[in-house]
Every structure is written in C-alpha cells, then in structure tokens.
Write a structure and sequence with these properties.
heterodimer, A: mainly alpha, two-stranded antiparallel ribbon, globular, B: Rossmann fold, Coagulation Factor XIII, Chain A, domain 1, 26% helix, ABC-type polysaccharide/polyol phosphate transport system, ATPase component (chain B), nucleotide-binding (chain B), transport (chain B), AAA+_ATPase (chain B), ATP-binding (chain B)
Chain lengths: 286, 420
C-alpha cells in the first residue's frame, strides 16, 4: 500500500495513506514503507534473540557453543580422520570461518522462509509492511554472527594468527549474504504459507547445500575440472571472501563477483516479485 | 471541513475455500489441480472460480469528517470487520479505494503480538512498535500505560503468567495511548471485567472529545448510543443506512436483525448433543405458543428438546434482548442446584420457565435459544443462534392511578412497597 507525501508539513505524522486494490501498488512505495517502519524490524529481531535464549540455562552462550562444538566435531572427522588439506591453515580456523558464514546464510534462508507462517497471528491483526518479516532474520542472525566472530578472533590469536585489518569489510559480505538469504526467503515464505511442504523440505536441502559449498573443504581440494562450478555458487564466493579477509586465503576471481552480484540482484528481484504477488492472498488465506 | 477518511466504491472479494478444507494445501494437490486445469477448458474453471468467491464488501462509499464518532453496526457477516480490516490496511481491497489523512490506530484484537515468554515491560515496547509507535514515544508514555493498565506490580514477569484480564488491560492500555488521529475499534470492549470496560469506554470518549475520529464496531447498541454521533448500518456488504440520527438507525438495525433472524418453528435444529423440537413463548397453556402479552400476563418460555448424547455439562437456556438489541439477561437450565436440574439424562425433555411477573417494560422482545457445554463451548451461542422468537408486551393493566406512561429504562418491574 502506498504512502504519499504529506500535504500539511505542520502535522507531526506525515501520513496520507491511500488504500487501493493490490494491482495499483508500486514497488517503490512498498520499499518506502519498509524504510518508514524499520523500527519494527529491529524490535522483532531483538525479540527473536531475547526469546531464543530467555529460558535457557546458559543463555546467549549457546550462540558461542554451537559453532565451537561443530568445529570440534568437524575438525575430528574431516581433519584428523579424513585428512582434508587446508592449504596450510589450521583446520579449526579454516572450518570455523566457513561455518560462520554458512550458518548465517542458512539461518537467514530457513527463518525468513518460515517468517510468514510464524507471525501469522500478527499479520492478520495489525498492519505493517510484510516485506519486513523475512528481513528480521538477517538482523537477528547477524548478532549471533558477531558473537561467534569474537570467538573466531580469540581462536586465531591462540594459534598466533592476527586478523587482517580488512576485517572492516565483513559487514559488506554480510550484507550480500543477507540479501541473498532475504531474496530466497521472499520467494519461499509465501509459498510456505500456502504449501507447508516447503517448510518440511527446506532444512534437508540446506543440509545438502552445505556439502556442495566449500565449508569443510577448500575449493582446491576439488578436482580441477570441477572447480569452475564453484564460481557459480554465490555462497562459495562469500565464504572465500570471508576466508580471504580473516585468514589471508586467496581472493576469488572477478568472474565470481559478477556471478555473486547477479545472484543477489536476481534473487532479490525475483523475491520482491513473488512476495508482492502472493502476499495479499496469504493474508486472506493463512 | 475536509474529510479525514474518504471511502470510494470499496469492495472486497474473498475466495470461498470449500467446507472444512484446510487453509493451506499441499504442493501435490495444487500440482494435480494445475494439471487438471491445463486439460479442461479455461472458461469452465473461471466460472467455477467466480462461484467459489463472494463479496464481503461492495460499492461502499462514505466520507468521515474530523472528530466524528461513527458506529458501524450490522449483523454478523454484514462486512463490518472486513471494512475495518481494509481501513487498517490488514487486507487490501479488491476494488475501489480509500484515502486516510492521519495516523490510524486500530484495535482489532487486543493482545496482538504479545509474546508469552517476554515480560510485560518488554511486551509494551514490542506491542507499541507493532502498532506504530517509535521507541522514544513509547518511553514517553510508558508510565501512563502502566498506570492505566493497573499491572504495575507484574511488569517484570513473563506475560504467560498473567491472567487473561491482565493481558487485556495491558493491551488496551498500549493501544489507547497511541494517540492516533483516527482510532478504529472492533468489539474489543466485550472482554475484561465491567470496571475495566467502563474505563475503556471512558478512554474512547476522551479520544473522541479531544476532536479525534473514531470508527467503532459494536453489537452493543447501548454503547453505540452513548458513544457515536453517526451510524453506518451495513447489510450484506453494502451500506443500508448512513445517518446522524443514531436512535433511528439503531431501531432500523434491531428490526432488520429480528426480521432476518426469525426462526421457523418447522425448522428443527440439531447438534451432536440434541435436537430442538420446539421453542416458544406462552402464557397459561405451556404447549400453545403466544407472542402478544399484557404486562399483567404471565410470560413463559417453553423448550422441547431431544437429548441424544447426555453430558452433565449440557445446558439449555434463553437469552432475552429488547428491540434495540440490548441483552437483558440470560438464564440456563443449570442455574439451580444440581439435583434440581430439569435434564438428568438422554431422551426427550420438555422444559419451561416463567419470567418474574410484572417485570418487562412495554415493547418488543427477542428470546433466543442458547445451548452450551458449561464453561467449555457454546453449541448455540447468543451471538449467532438462529433460533429466535419475538414477542411483545403491552401496558394494558396498570394498577396504580399514577402509572400511565411507558416507564423509562429497560425494565419496568412492579416492586412491592410496604410500610414497616
């Protein structure tokens, strides 16, 4: 729905709202609506984090414990047993840095896809831009990403490694990962509200996708004739960028960035299109 | 004065999902459906589509000026809630448009967005944000909200430990302190205790008298009469009446409500627990229905019911309302001591009860048959039970030489005044 500019500048709330049939809505107005209501996204994200750890004994420490334990297991299985080479980087550091990015991305995808169903009670009773809902996990997952990042830096210091100052570029990578997940969430969340199959199948596909992404092994471990395939995987590029920053691994090639940008733009556009087309039906149907 | 709300030819069409069908489908069903559609002729399925949808609201146009308090009344399904949902932007209209100048605070359901694990304090901030307040605005009103709600001592414990009354009070407080230019309220005042309802009504009155605009849906005609200076009567998704003469609008509504709700005695009503054979008013002979009474006549209600599944929770009764739709009382077969209940098992039961004598005022009354599993659920509830009869009471036998006119007030009991 649309928000037109105010006609009386003196009024404290610059609102004239025009409510019209869905077909007459404009994308830019929807995006403006999201911006006007950004407070709600923050509030929802904070609530998400509060609720997640509220009744747990060790609280937010779970955000640390999960990646640390996963790293320990992966190190045992893939480094100690399977002896996957990591180009001279200590395996725990290598896998942790990949895992952080992967967990951020997959969490955004899964939670954004479930966001409409989860907030059903709110969206049928109060108005706010529904485009905000799949956006919330990009924020709440970012908080956990940052907490785990502190652990990563501590681990690196323990191994005598110093993070590169390029670490200040991380927010940009996170932004790309967030947009990627948001785009997928925009496509899947309305579908999930109509077909619950989506919510059932998604964790399975996310699990598979992790093995197709160089989280636990470096791309160089893959036979050279298949390595080009990884350039098409946007998350692989994101993880490589993350490792380039954190542990001075080589930067991905220019082609990879172009593919990544195409994915981000394409998925966001596809997501906005799908979401805006299905959203009105969802509210009446959910 | 320019309109603060302009509604122009608004319409909302809903698809009917088949009876009892789940709101969501499986991918498999949809794929199968799509395949079927591919092989059948398109026009046929378009026709089917049209047949499976209905207009909850159509051709609705009106303007509301700043400061008006508009009561929106109508039967269940008349489109009241749909109208409010469209105006609150929860659902988009299918045609037409509405223009709203000012911030809208809509209270369609209290407690929206409360999370059970979070404390009252945390929920105030969250609820406020969801309803459109900035953080600093909530902070500025926080104390007022807490004071109005009266849950100050419980602010830091999780909402899940609140009683439902406390939750309602807190939710209304947040919404009432939004200070929107336009307030949209849907029947929320039917919750909470009487004391708090009065407080809420007072708050809405304050909002109205401070020059802000209120749209108010209610089934309670007394409240509408008290609050509103204009009534829009909806019927079948269209505006039937739009007037500043609140009294006459309420009468029109009440007549429409009784006319369309008149129950045919020939229509047996069945639920999984019982079948209702007859329901009527009578005077002296229980089994001969009568609908016109004098004020001195005894007025009885007769229920003939066959219980095929007996549970002790099962009860029957009557809800009595006046011609303006004010509920006077309801009375249930289980009001007495358990051993005196008229229904103690399955089978056919004929019950009757008399109203107190010389109790009702002159006028038209509506008696509605209600049935429930006590404290569990309604089988036929006072809102929607279609089993309705009407009767009139005429003032034709007054004993006092001074009592000639219809008394003001809902009831006109003759009390027995004595000297000690």
């Amino acid at each position: 729905m649309t928000v037109a500019p105010m006609d009386t500048p003196a009024s404290p709330q610059p609102t004239e709202v025009v409510i019209r049939a869905r077909a007459d809505h404009h994308l830019m107005h929807d995006i403006a609506d999201v911006w006007t209501n950004r407070d709600i996204a923050w509030t929802l994200a904070l609530r998400e984090i509060q609720i997640r750890y509220k009744q747990s004994l060790i609280g937010i420490a779970w955000a640390l414990l999960q990646p640390v334990l996963t790293t320990a297991i992966f190190t045992f299985v893939f480094s100690y047993l399977a002896r996957i080479p990591t180009d001279g980087i200590p395996y725990p550091i290598f896998v942790f840095s990949g895992l952080l990015m992967w967990q951020y991305f997959s969490r955004v995808v899964v939670e954004a896809s479930g966001s409409l169903v989860k907030n059903e009670a709110i969206i049928t009773k109060v108005f706010f831009p529904r485009l905000l809902l799949p956006l919330v996990p990009t924020l709440s997952a970012a908080v956990e990403f940052l907490i785990a990042l502190v652990v990563l830096v501590a681990m690196m210091l323990a191994y005598g490694m110093v993070p590169s100052p390029l670490i200040v570029l991380l927010p940009l990578i996170l932004l790309a990962a967030g947009l990627l997940g948001y785009g997928i969430g925009l496509v899947l969340s309305p579908l999930n509200a109509i077909y619950r199959d989506v919510g059932i199948a998604l964790p399975f596909f996310v699990q598979i996708a992790m093995y197709l992404t160089p989280v636990i092994y470096p791309v160089t471990f893959v036979p050279p004739q298949y390595q080009w395939l990884y350039a098409l995987n946007p998350v692989a590029t994101l993880i490589d960028m993350m490792r380039a920053i954190i542990i001075a691994a080589p930067w991905p090639g220019l082609f990879n960035y172009a593919v990544l940008a195409a994915w981000v733009i394409g998925l966001t556009a596809l997501g906005l299109g799908t979401f805006r087309k299905l959203e009105p039906a969802i509210v009446d149907r959910i | 004065m320019s309109a603060i709300i302009t509604v122009d030819n608004l319409g909302k069409q809903y698809a009917l999902s088949g009876t009892g069908a789940p709101a969501y489908a499986t991918l498999r069903e949809s794929l199968a459906d799509a395949a079927r559609r591919l092989f059948s002729r398109a026009p046929a399925s378009a026709q089917k589509e049209a047949a499976r949808s209905f207009w909850a609201l159509r051709n609705v146009s009106f303007d509301v000026a700043e400061g008006e308090v508009v009561g929106i009344v109508g039967r269940n399904g008349a489109g009241k809630s749909t109208l409010l949902k469209v105006l609150s932007r929860i659902t988009a209209p299918s045609e037409g448009m509405a223009r709203i100048r000012g911030r809208v605070g809509s209270l369609l359901e209290v407690g929206t967005g409360f999370h059970p694990e979070l404390s009252g304090r945390e929920n105030i901030y969250f609820n406020g944000a969801i309803l459109g307040l900035r953080k600093h605005e909530i902070r500025a009103r926080f104390d007022e909200i807490v004071e109005f709600s009266g849950v100050g001592d419980f602010l830091d414990i999780p909402i899940k430990r609140y009683s439902s009354g406390m939750k309602t009070r807190l939710a209304f407080s947040v919404a009432a302190h939004l200070e929107p230019e336009i307030m949209i309220v849907d029947e929320v005042l039917s919750v909470g205790d009487a004391e708090f309802q009065r407080k809420c009504l007072g708050k809405i009155k304050d909002v109205a008298s401070s020059g802000r605009t209120v749209l108010f849906v209610s089934h309670n005609m007394n409240t509408v009469r008290q609050l509103c200076n204009r009534v829009i009567l909806l019927s079948g998704g269209k505006i039937q009446l739009d007037t500043y003469d609140v009294g006459s609008a309420i009468d029109t509504y009440a007549v429409a409500a009784t006319l369309t709700r008149r129950w045919q005695q020939s229509m047996p009503v069945s639920t999984e627990f019982f079948t209702l054979n007859a329901f009527h008013s009578f005077s002296d002979n229980v089994e001969s229905p009568r609908i016109n009474f004098g004020n001195a006549d005894s007025i009885g209600i007769f229920i003939d019911v066959h219980v095929h599944r007996y549970v002790p929770l099962l009860n029957f009764g009557v809800q009595l309302s006046d011609s303006s739709g004010n509920e006077l009382f309801f009375s249930l077969s289980t009001d007495g001591a358990e051993k005196d209940w008229p229904i103690q098992g399955a089978g056919r039961h004929k019950l009757f009860a008399y109203l107190p004598s010389r109790f009702l005022n002159a006028g038209e009354y509506t008696a509605r048959f209600i049935a429930s599993l006590h404290n569990e659920r309604w089988l036929l509830d006072p809102e929607t039970s279609e089993v309705v009869i009407n009767f009139t009471v005429e003032q034709n036998s007054l004993i006092s030489p001074y009592w000639r006119m219809r008394r003001p007030g809902l009831l006109a009991p003759e009390l027995d005044w004595r000297a000690i």
